[in-house]
Amino acid sequence: MDRPLGFGVVGLGMIAEFHARALQAMAGAELVACYSRDPDKAAVFAARHGGTGHNDYDAFLDNPGLDVVAICTPSGAHLEPTVAAAAAGKHVICEKPLEVTIERVDQMISACADAGVLLAGIFPRRFNPSTRLLKQAVDGGRFGRIAMADAIVKWWRPQAYYDSGAWRGTWALDGGGALMNQSIHSIDLLLHVMGDVKSLRAETRLIAHSGIEVEDTAVASLEFACGALGVIQGSTACWSKAGHAAEIQITGSRGSVFMADDRFRVWESAEETAEDASVRAEFGLEGSSAGAGAADPSAIDFAWHQRNFEDLVAALRDGRAPAIDGGEARRSVALIRAIYESAAAGGQKISVN
Predict the structure, then answer these.
(1) Are 230 and 190 in contact (CB under 8 A)?
(2) In this structure, which of 98, 109, 161, 313 has its CB flanked by the most CB atoms within 10 Å?
């Protein structure tokens, strides 16, 4: 295809703004359409970012320049627009989580596979250069045999955040709370670096908020398939003026690494090399702005999304699967649903499939 790939955005909330800005900054892609049931919202978004605004989904899918549909609707409303897009022959890139249950995720994967279109998930942290360094180091045994691997997300969301939309904090449309909505990025990153979780025990609580069905605090104890142990801590009940960075902490028999957002708070090895010093110099915390999304979700850098979109464009160009296809994006949902199952059973040990 000689022309840029045409993207259309569905669901025009805050996250759609990141998508539009990422597409505008990219080569090989352009925003050609947007969809909202509210015609005024669609018109305003199109005037601000370009393309044609639609309030009829069939007309949106019929846009002649549309190749890829970006789904930004509430989490429990990802399935239906994805199935319709696939049936229309459009590729799909979908915000996290793919859906709120494994059954609905699997329906999305099947619909896209049956239609012969690509399905990509959005987990921007995977595409940061520091993430690639971390995974290469762990896979290469740089830190020895891994003993513990943890994901720690101690964020704050005010009550007004949950009150801002009737879907927020519901099982049907949010799919969960601090884990499914906020911590899922770090959970995906933990799985990406460490591999699958074999079993877990978990507890969840609603501590600092009211009027919602889901958790604002959760802890899970993990056993990875590789034999390492770990912990997931996820919360939106941890107030901080600037926000605490989301951390991945990995410790092994020959070293330790603590990643705070996309920077390394700790990177050390028993066999120090010049490369270690270079990593700390380039990706250390000094001079960085840790806490992306911790206290203010609108402060997230759209460049992270841009890299995610660029991978899909490259996949379509090269005839390969995207780095985060439906199966990859499914893993974090399966783990979080297992955590909820354990918590509902009073902390019972659960095997993760």
Answers:
(1) yes
(2) 98
Residues 95, 189 within the same domain: no
Residues 212 and 197 grouped into a single domain: yes
Model confidence band, residue 296 (pLDDT cutoffs 50, 70, 90): low
Same domain, 309 and 278: no
329-341 mean pLDDT:
98
Give the integer Cα–Cα distance in Å for 299 and 292: 6
Q: Which residues of 223-257 are buried (b: 16+ CB within 10 A; e: fewer)?
A: bbeeebebebbbbbbbeeeebbbbbbbbbbeebbb
What backbone torsions phi and psi does residue 124 show, to the nearest 5 degrees? -60, -25
H-run or E-run covering 8: strand 5-10
d(CA 286, CA 288): 6
Q: What is the pLDDT of residues 192-234, one digit of tens each?
A: 999 999 999 999 999 999 999 999 999 999 999 999 999 999 9
- Pair 174, 256 in one domain: yes
Do 194 and 240 have their domain in common?
yes
Same domain, 199 and 280: yes
Which residue's structure tokens are 């990219």? 26
Tell whether 13 and 105 lie within a shared domain: yes
**Structural domain of residue 80, as residue ranges?**
5-125+302-325
Per-residue model confidence (pLDDT) at position 301: 75
Is the confidence at residue 46, as pLDDT, over 70? Answer: yes
User: Max alpha carbon distance in the chain (Å)?
Assistant: 61
Both 29 and 169 in one domain: the answer is: no
- CATH number for position 110: 3.40.50.720
CA dist 248 and 231 (Å) reads 10
Residue 292: per-residue pLDDT: 59
Is pTM, for the whole model, over 0.90? yes
Name the domain count of the chain. 2
